[in-house]
Here is the input.
Amino acid sequence: MNRILGTLIVFASASLALQGALAQEKGSAPQALTLSGEYAGTHDPSIAVDHGKYYVFATGAVRPPRVESAPPTPPVPGAARPSTAQLPQLAIRCSPDLKVWKRCGAIFPSIPTWIQQMSPETQELWAPDVSYFDGLYHLYYAFSAFGKNTSGIALATNETLDPSSPKYKWVDRGLVLRSLATDDFNAIDPNLILDSKGEAYLSFGSFWTGIKMRHLDRHTGLLSKTDEKLYSLASRRPGSLAQPRNPNLPPDTEAIEAPFVFQHGGYYYLFVSWDLCCRGLKSTYRTMVGRSTSVTGPYVDRDGKPMLEGGGSPLLQANGQWLGPGGESLLHLDHEDLIVFHAYSATDGHPALHISTLGWKDGWPEAALEGDSAK
Here is the structure.
């Protein structure tokens, strides 16, 4: 019954999305929301809504809040430094109105044991992606070591996002896919989409040969056994590298990651982050987009340049207040579409959550970053 209900929800949502698309083509310009509360420190946000309450899931370990008046605890000579892997993972923030945010826990109390055994270098879980279908919230997430492609994507599910509900429990569904040092892709930054036929696909990727996609078995949330093709969606560099690969870090020429596929009107839109994240004041992330009539591509930008050949149209770029806007996800609501992302303060380099409404003009999305008027 849940699968049938979920399928009906998918097609009803597609119909609403099309109606919303037509309305938003005539709508107002995008607006950056003013946020307050505990939204600082958010990285790679993914957003969902459950019974009118909004939830954002983010990369990383959840550290205890810092007490400004408390003196720092001196280190104990000879004591081992606590492992980040033992801290709660994948922070949750919640809001009743998309503007006032507070911390609402974490997905896992620590990195699951099987991940610590499979990937002992992993110290934090990354890039959660949440979606709802067939009666469950599906949260895909990544594990890896920074700058390496010995990575993996895993799945957790829950019946509800409300931590006060007796049904609230994140169930670890285990490994979905891996990438090894011998592969030409990196299995991080997952994003799930249900296409117009209700089929599930997972996009992912970072650096190397770019953004990839695999068909999933919708019932299990794991890889399809009938379609084992690895689809290629986008890349920064066509052809062979002009420089030898650094074995410890991929070259900046390959800097594309954080895919998110979003259906609007008659197109699938592929949002990606170009350039470099996670470098504070030196972060150069920017959000780019292309579109296709097929979920598996080919995707092209406004000028018709294929994203597999380095194409991409700019959506969000740095301004005087915020640097490196990226790590994006989107949410379709009845009355508007939203994009959530992180950006780094141009003052201190610290990341924070950002939310913008999406405008649509001539079939292409528009978004706003706080401080854009000060460009």
User: Anything to note?
Assistant: Confidence is low (pLDDT under 50) at residues 1-23, 72-81.
